[in-house]
Amino acid sequence: MTHESLFNELWTTTLTRLGGAKAIAALARETKAFVRPREVKSAVDLLRIILAYCLGGMGLRVTSAWAASVGLADLSNVALLGRLRNSTAWMQRLVGVLLAGEGESGLEWSAGASTGRRIRLLDATTVPKASLKARTAGGLWRVHAGFDLPSEQFSFFEVTDEKEAEHLGRMPVEAGDIVIADRGYMSTARLGAALEAGADVIVRAGWRQVRWLDESGAKLDLLAALKAAEASGRIDRKIGLGRTDGKAPDARGDGRGTAPAPLRLVAMRKPPEAAAKSRRTAQHEADKEKVQIAAGTLLTADWMLLVTSLPADTYPAERIVELYRSRWRIEMAFKRLKSVVGLGGPPGQDPAVAKTWILAHLLMVLLLEPHVGALEVSPRQAPRPLAA
Known about the structure:
Layout: H1 10-17, H2 21-30, H3 43-55, H4 60-69, H5 77-85, H6 88-101, E1 119-128, H7 132-136, E2 140-149, E3 153-161, E4 178-181, H8 188-196, E5 200-204, E6 211-214, H9 222-228, E7 234-242, E8 263-269, H10 272-289, H11 295-300, E9 303-308, H12 317-324, H13 328-339, H14 351-368
């Protein structure tokens, strides 16, 4: 994506999809990104300049010179920096306009496992911060995202730094949604909020992330249950989940710090190749940390452990696993975000400018989504990976 594309015939379409020039200007005034004409004559011109800087690979001085050469604005690089710093909220609102306006695309979803309900895949990707000091200290920008099926489109974005964790509560959910997330999202405290909103969940779990309980609330020996199921290679049973942090009980809990009921544990034994890979990965992590690997870690490496609130009569274990495996679609969408739109680490060290830069890329991927099939292999055509 280069700044020349901002002047072609797609620019009019872009403005229309963002609500038109008047709506764009109204949001700019509301967020104080553009209050009155000075060096820049209109909010639309400012948007062109911002996208040129963020997507065109130009620095501040070159972008300022370009804006002057094409008659958009005569502003210094310092003035442009101030405009970028003040545009974070505006860009977030423009991203929101596209997210709110994206409906079902009519694409067929081959899994057919959702029985007509909206599937919401929740995950996050990261890009590095610009300064060497920040990168050395593990500094990252984290892009939290929701990706919906069957529309196969992003429906949620939030940008934070590395200090803010991934969790189920970031993405708004509605009654009837099925939220699917990896083990980083397993939190007894967050499950209750999703269920309280009328959604259902499928979340992967680690064997030591929660206190495993049976449906009566008694302690469940998970490792013994897995050993007993080695012959069949599967478990599908009602469970409870206990809090491990000593905090207050969840919404709809039983007053003893347990998770909302009913929940199910769906465990499937991995194919031999996938299980061996998981054991090697677990051993590598233990070696890196210079600790003795736990026997339970090696045992559970052979299994996929899923916790779900979906009922067994309409969502048997095989369907739960099929739904969870649809997570590769958001992983492919992240690859598209970085390859097609070029999202990488933003330049400079100003947090507000960095967020504006990232949001400009998110805005562009939303604009390109209807046409992405012509730009790259569709996520629907990607090979389906084995469970990790």
